[in-house]
Every structure is written in structure tokens, then in C-alpha cells.
Design a protein that fits this description.
283 residues, alpha+beta, D-Maltodextrin-Binding Protein, domain 2, Alpha-Beta Plaits, 5-stranded mixed sheet, 15 strands, 34% strand, EC 4.2.1.51, phenylalanine biosynthesis
């Protein structure tokens, strides 16, 4: 399974969590991650699409429709952040911490409380690797516990993130689509359908296109727009809905959507992660 980043990245953790029996293949970029799957170097690709704190991952929504791959599953990873130091280092020894700018921003309170200066690194696992190579007790990394395990670093403090519900959603991509109905890991039959579309150039096209989901009682869990080819008048929409295209209500809603769109591409039909039902029940 391909993923973007160095070994120990949160995408690597997602691979281990979702498919512990698969070998994880690190890739330099998201494009490389997709190509590894498309070429057959990897059976699957793990792509992060959104974070509960920072929103959608840049460029992924542009990449999905052009990837030639299909979404077959989703998984959510709880982002636990550890302060990782060289063996023998103590928390009081640390004067600076290195990580990706996003993770540094998630640990401001901890860093301020301990008087630790932040240093921006290329990514989380890469920062852990650099700290291990440097061997300086005053410099630590902010990364996953998995990164500490891989690079032989000590966990000087765990779960130091400011927000305790920080979670990233990942999509699992494959070369072949799987349109079958199948239960999720909790045995629930909940299905999701993801697609992209462009509306026709008529007044209130988006409003009319969305009407079919409302009138047929289909819940849309996500709708996002983004520019196409840098043109302000060309907008593409990404959407997630609950249900399967063979469900009568979903089929009617998609048929109505097609009437008001110039293009409509189904990206995947897959089981909803159990976290969705857990969060709905907790409301």
C-alpha cells in the first residue's frame, strides 16, 4: 500500500491501522503515491483528504478525479502527537522541537509551557529522522509514536496536542472499483458514495441539482467546490452522500443531478467508517 511521506508519517499509521497485513510503500508526493498504485507497484493507495482541525488537504480533490483510481474504503486516524528525543534525553533538556508547521501549530500550549522553541521541518516523520541523525538531546521532534519506534527515539511526552479530538480522514484507493454492498469493520451496512460534478451553465443550476437529494431524503455529508484549471468561471464540486447508487432514493437523486450537470463522475462506493455512526449517536 503506497502512502505519501517518510516511514512513521500519519499516513503510514493509517496504512498499519487499516491493513496491518500489507507492506507500506513510502512515496515522496501524492502524485507518486497515486502512480505507485496505478502502475501496480502497490495494490492500494492511502490518501488523506481532510482533517477535523485544518479542513481539506490541499490538491487532493484535484488529484482524485484525474488519478484513474477508485475509492474502496475510508478510515479515520486519531492524531496523537508525541515529543520524541534521542535516547537518554529528558524533557527538561529539550529547548527546540522540529516538525511540520501544522503539527507545531497543534502543540502551541505545550511548547509555550515548557519554553521550547519551534523549528519547521519538511514533514513529521522526516523531522523525527533528522533528530535521530543529529543526536542532540536539546532538539526533539513532534511526530507520531510510530515515528519514534521506527527511528529509535524516546517518547518524552505523549498526547501533547492542544485539541484532543484532532482526526484525519483517509481514503483507500484501488485500480478497480468495488460497487458491492459490504459491511464495515463494525458489521454495519452503512454505505457512502463519492462523486464529482460540474453544473450546466443555467441560472440556479446548483440549487436545482441539489434539490433531488432533499426531495428524496438522501443525506449529503460533504459538498465542496474548487476551481478547475485556474479559471474562475469553471467550478467543480466534490460530494459525499449516504447510500448506494442502487438504492431507489439515491438512484432518483443522481438521475435528477445528471439533468443539471455537464459532467458527473462516481469516484467510489464504499462502507462508511464506524466512527460516523459513533459520532451521530453521541450528538
Amino acid at each position: 500500500m503506497s502512502f505519501q511521506g517518510e516511514p512513521g508519517a500519519y499516513s503510514h499509521q493509517a496504512c498499519r491501522q487499516w491493513a496491518p497485513d500489507h507492506e507500506a510503500l513510502p512515496c515522496a508526493t501524492f502524485e507518486d503515491t497515486v502512480e505507485a498504485c496505478r502502475s501496480g507497484a502497490a495494490d492500494l493507495a492511502m490518501l488523506p483528504v481532510e482533517n477535523s482541525t485544518y479542513g481539506r488537504v490541499a490538491d487532493i480533490h484535484h488529484l482524485l478525479p484525474e488519478s484513474g483510481l477508485h475509492i474502496i474504503a475510508e478510515t479515520f486516524v486519531r492524531v496523537h502527537i508525541s515529543l520524541l528525543g534521542v535516547p537518554g534525553a529528558r524533557l527538561e533538556d529539550v529547548t527546540e522541537a522540529m516538525s511540520h508547521t501544522v503539527l507545531l501549530g497543534q502543540c502551541r500550549e505545550f511548547l509555550k509551557r515548557h519554553g521550547i522553541r519551534s523549528i519547521t521541518g519538511a514533514d513529521t516523520a522526516g523531522s523525527a529522522m533528522q533528530v535521530a541523525q543529529a543526536g542532540q538531546p536539546q532538539r526533539a521532534a513532534l511526530a507520531s509514536p510510530l515515528a519514534g519506534e521506527i527511528y529509535g527515539l524516546d517518547r518524552l511526552a505523549d498526547e501533547i496536542e492542544d485539541r484532543q479530538n484532532n482526526t484525519t480522514r483517509f481514503l483507500i484507493m484501488a485500480r478497480e472499483a468495488d460497487m458491492t454492498r459490504r459491511p464495515n469493520s463494525a458489521g454495519r451496512p452503512d454505505m457512502l458514495t463519492s462523486f464529482v460534478f460540474r453544473v450546466r451553465n443555467i441560472p440556479a443550476a446548483l440549487y436545482k441539482a441539489m434539490g433531488g437529494f432533499a426531495t428524496n431524503g438522501v443525506n449529503m455529508t460533504k459538498l465542496e467546490s474548487y476551481m478547475v484549471d485556474g479559471v474562475f468561471t469553471a467550478t467543480q464540486f466534490y460530494a459525499d452522500i449516504e447510500g448506494h447508487p442502487d438504492d431507489p432514493a439515491v438512484a432518483r437523486a443522481l438521475e435528477e443531478l445528471r439533468y443539471f450537470t455537464s459532467t458527473l463522475t462516481i469516484l467510489g462506493v464504499y462502507p462508511a467508517d464506524p466512527l460516523r455512526a459513533e459520532q451521530a449517536a453521541a450528538r
